Amino acid sequence: xxxxxxxxxxxxxxxxxxxxxxxxxxxxxxxxxxxxxxxxxxxxxxxxxxxxxxxxxxxxxxxxxxxxxxxxxxxxxxxxxxxxxxxxxxxxxxxx
Length: 96
Fold this sequence. Notes:
InterPro entries: GlrX-like_pln_2, Glutaredoxin, Glutaredoxin_subgr, Thioredoxin-like_sf. By secondary structure, the chain is α+β, with helices and mostly antiparallel strands.
């Protein structure tokens, strides 16, 4: 699933931090694949797998270029230090 698109987000529909991360990446034009774990079949199973990968909390979990970036704190840190947009470009998520 994480290789489906350059950016993949595992989220929950009512999670405010998930919403923030999705909004940020969409505003950049990244067009991520978003899996709402409270709405997809096997959502609990995916959530448990994310926890085993070290995502705590499990959502939001962001993958860029097939690699786990982390949650909201990691994405915001990358954005604030200027690394997020270059990472999105290298993954092919942005064309600019």
